[in-house]
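FIELD: query
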Amino acid sequence: MMRSPLCLLLLNLISCFNLQAQEGTIMTVTGPIPASEMGTTLIHEHVLVDFIGAEKSGKHRWDNDKVVSTVLPYLNEVTGLGVQTLVECTPAYLGRDPELLRQISEISGLQLLTNTGYYGASDNQYLPSQAHTESAEQLAKRWIKEAKEGIDGTGIRPGFIKIGINGGPLSNLHAKLIRAAAKTHLETGLVIASHTGPAAPAFEQLAILEKEGVDASAFIWVHAQGEPDLDKHIQAAEKGAWVSLDGLGDLNASEYLKMLENLKAHGFLHQTLLSHDAGWYSPGEENGGGFRPYTALFKKLIPMLTQQGWSKEDIQQLLVVNPRKAFEIRVRHR
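FIELD: result
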């Protein structure tokens, strides 16, 4: 029986509200899954990123079949290493393509998450015009609609909120982005992953979240490895935030070992996230440009951790338990 558009909308809304009420639900590009099915997860990676700018980027810039043929071998490689879920962190106006991700997920069998939100880092060149003119409430309304109804009419819903800020003190514009993210979280239960880097703006964002009534556990400090003072990692974790070390590569594994040892020694392994920020297909570059694999964690870092006496349970905490807890749909009131 054909359902009317109004009926479909109501069913979608009911489904969303049910998800919000169920702790332990993860939203993938192919639909919701129990958090227990998330498995080994890479929490910050990219399939495609388009740096041409907010006003020029769009699906006309790439051919899905070419992207799939380029990316699929790298995804198959990590599924062969036991990865079940990949959190795709490309924001809107930077190459986010939910339908492409769904296609890749269905072909590869890898569970993928996409996002809502706006990226203000790199001096706002990837922000749409409405980010400058609309209020935090208006921006949140846009993001909440994506979370409840799907992105751009696709029916594909985001699994988290992705924003980005510059590394210095928060501008008024970037403070607005975090307020909009807070309001979106309180309505949807989606975790906030904020491209940040240094500690100072991370703590400014946490202060704004506190004023908005959002607990620090709803905040992922993205690129925390960019802060050289490791005491700041501990201070953020003490507040309840997720400390995300997500620029791992073949040449910096020893630095990541040091940061992880510090967090573990202070009892905050359970608030630590780990990934590569790797990939990706670059539209406009020959053959999609250079592609960095998602494998240094398994080929470089885990052998080092094992050699240092880390247990299988420690590694499972980082790669299975923590992602599940961070990305489950749950409103976290302060």
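FIELD: remark
The two ends are 45 Å apart (CA to CA).
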